[in-house]
Amino acid sequence: MVVVAHEMSHGLHDDARASINKQLVLSGLLIEVLGEHTNAGSVIMALVTYNYIVQRGFTLPHEVRADEDSFRYIASIGGNVRAPAALWARVADKLGERPSGGILGEILNPNNHPSTT
Fold first, then answer.
1. pLDDT by residue (tens digit) across 19-60?
2. Is 115 within a domain?
3. Are 101 and 109 in contact (CB under 8 A)?
4. Which of 3, 26, 47, 108 has the most crowded CB, counting CB atoms within 10 A?
5. How far apart are CA 48 and CA 110, in angstroms?
6. Does the residue 82 lie in any domain?
7. Taking the CA of residue 59 as centre, how many other CA atoms within 13 Å lie in the half-sphere pointing to its CB?
8. Which DSSP string do the residues of 59-99 spell out, in sequence order?
9. Per the domain annotation, does 54 fall within a domain?
10. Please, is 22 exposed, middle or buried when counting C-beta atoms within 10 Å of its C-beta (0-12, 13-18, 19+)?
11. Domain that holds residue 46
12. Whole-angstrom Cα distance, residue 78 to residue 31?
């Protein structure tokens, strides 16, 4: 039920369209900034920058809101909001947090979902 409520939030807020629109603008800006300076290093840096901004700036806020909304939706129908929280706590205990790759790992592979703890 939590997953359905979470995805309902994405749909109700039209997150996919909002993200795509922002990504198109960001792509245009990066292309403009690069201009004719398209050597391998600048292209790689632009792609890393693009990915970081999309994951942390566009996707993460949508995921946080969808998580919060899903608990509100479940509570509004009298559902048990403690059960999914307890399940995720058990998953986090079993699997641990996402391995840290340090600052470089976070830049190259940014987390786009809220922490499990």
1. 999 999 999 999 888 887 788 888 888 899 999 999 999 999
2. no
3. yes
4. 26
5. 10
6. yes
7. 13
8. IHHHHHHHHHHHHHHHHHTT--SHHHHHHHHHHHHHH-SPP
9. yes
10. middle
11. 2-108
12. 50
State the total domains in the chain: 1
Residue 117 in domain: no
78: left (phi over 0), alpha (psi -120 to 50) or beta: left
Question: What per-residue confidence (pLDDT) applies to 27?
Answer: 93
CA 45 to chain centre: 20
Tokens representing 6?
């979470």
Looking at residue 83, its amino acid is A
Q: Please compute the mean of the pLDDT values over residues 93-114 and round it to a whole number.
A: 74
- Enumerate residues 6+ apart whose C-beta is below 8 A from 11: none
Out of 26-30, 74-78, 79-83, 98-102, least confident range: 98-102
In whole numbers, what is the pLDDT of the chain averaged over residues? Answer: 87
Tokens of 54: 């999309």
